[in-house]
Design a protein that fits this description.
CATH architecture of the domain at 56-197: Alpha Horseshoe
CATH topology of the domain at 56-197: Leucine-rich Repeat Variant
Distance between the termini: 114 Å
GO biological process, one term: cilium movement
Structural class: mainly alpha
GO molecular function: microtubule binding
Number of strands: 0
Helix content: over 70%
InterPro entries: ARM-like, ARM-type_fold, Armadillo, HEAT
Keywords: Repeat
ARM repeats: 124-166
CATH class of the domain at 56-197: Mainly Alpha
Length: 417
């Protein structure tokens, strides 16, 4: 074929490459999205997904993903322009670079709302994404796991669809892979599935996830530790049996060490996991205390600030509510002081309410408990919070209940012969 004939095709190809790469680069910045949308970028990118040049296909998918990520309107345009079936059909046929880009688009569409996530499911994406979890390339697995995570997070029905597609056993395999980013995303996907219901959490436990999650608690990566602790919390929160399943994989005492982690997010996630176990039963609360958790939680509340204190505060309340021996253990561990401090000093009303509730749970068992509260001057502070005009109705209610719980014992003792 003569050079004269080939030249216009080469020029056309170079122009397509330059266009799609430039759009993908511009789409990185949110301030460019509106201008790109006004220029009709969606209709120009769509045919490039079927381009004969693989690099152009990949760049077109990447650009679409970035546009959908920053704009719900453009994510809806991806759906309305029937681009999803095109992406899904290509997922099983194209190379690993395209698969990553296509999974990225699906993730960016699904993240905005349950309606858009359902559109992704209805396009047949789940089966294709699950197949990607079986790919050799870890980056393809990671992209697929991330898309599944964003689908599952919205509703129990969407999470169930992910489970029904067979994703859970493969996600459990993914958390065993050596790549930290793949572990992180897969643990996050399992967490999003678990959070909705006991049945979904049981699916994850039945797939054998718990021991592998437990083994990752001491990992060096902060984001992975956060995902793992929240996943364990999302399993434990539903039922006593599920909480016991988490305890049985030896998360204690290593999760207590995470309360001293250098990353504040890890510390909060660990405290959240302990809270979800502590609330389930008296036996589990006793087991937590035997592991030395009370002192660790008290230290955590002392060191944390703001709403990060909340899971620790509630843990003490749940433990203290079960029986007087457990409550006395909290008092002996100097647990009253940080609860009182949070009641007085924290600006967040929900933290104050939780502190008042926990103090009531601990102080209402016996004369000894009530005396410990009185010696710490807790009743006067509860009264002050109750009378403060800016206190929320919930805070006033919790303060009043705690005050009655503590003072009732004192009144009964004084009135008895």
């Amino acid at each position: 074929m003569s050079r004269a004939v080939l030249q216009p095709f080469e020029v056309y190809q170079k122009a397509r490459v330059q266009f799609v790469q430039t759009v993908a680069e511009l789409a990185k910045r949110p301030q460019n999205i509106e201008a790109l949308q006004s220029a009709g970028v969606m209709s120009l990118l769509r045919p490039l997904l079927l381009d004969c040049v693989p690099s152009i296909q990949q760049s077109a998918a990447l650009a679409l993903g970035r546009l959908a990520k920053h704009s719900e309107d453009l994510a809806e345009a991806v759906v309305s322009n029937e681009i999803l079936p095109q992406l899904v059909s290509s997922l099983g046929e194209q190379n690993r670079f395209y698969k990553k880009a296509a999974a990225f688009v699906l993730r960016c569409v699904a993240k905005h709302s349950s309606t858009l996530a359902m559109a992704v499911v209805n396009s047949g994406a789940l089966e294709a994404l699950v197949q990607c979890l079986e790919e050799f390339d870890p980056s393809v697995k990671e992209a697929a796991a991330s898309a599944l995570r964003y689908i599952a997070k919205h509703t129990a029905d969407l999470a169930q669809a992910v489970v029904d597609a067979g994703a859970v056993p493969l996600l459990v395999l993914c958390i065993q892979e050596p790549e930290t980013t793949l572990k992180r995303v897969s643990a996050g996907a399992l967490s999003e599935i678990c959070k909705h219901s006991a049945e979904l959490a049981q699916n994850v436990v039945d797939a054998g996830a718990a021991p592998f999650l437990s083994a990752l608690i001491p990992h060096h990566d902060a984001e992975l530790k956060r995902s793992v602790c929240f996943c364990l919390a999302n399993i434990a929160k539903h039922t006593i049996d599920l909480a016991e399943a988490i305890v049985d994989v030896d998360i204690f005492p290593k999760i207590l060490y995470r309360l001293k982690d250098t990353d504040p997010g890890v510390r909060k996630a660990a405290a959240t996991c302990i809270r979800e176990i502590a609330r389930q039963s008296q036996d589990l609360a006793k087991m937590i205390c035997s592991a030395g958790a009370v002192v660790s939680i008290v230290d955590y509340i002392n060191e944390a600030k703001g709403d990060a204190r909340l899971p620790g505060i509630m843990t003490l309340g749940f433990i203290g509510a079960f029986d007087e021996a457990l409550a006395m253990g909290i008092i002996a561990a100097k647990g009253i002081a940080p609860l009182k401090d949070a009641l007085i000093k924290e600006p967040d009303q929900s933290v104050k309410s939780a502190s008042a509730w926990s103090l009531g749970m601990i102080g209402g068992h016996s004369a000894d408990h009530s005396r410990a509260m009185a010696e710490a001057d807790v009743p006067s502070h509860l009264l002050a919070v109750y009378k403060f005009p800016d206190s929320s109705e919930d805070l006033k209610k919790k303060s009043s209940q705690a005050l009655k719980s503590i003072l009732q014992i004192t009144i009964n003792l004084r009135s008895s012969p």
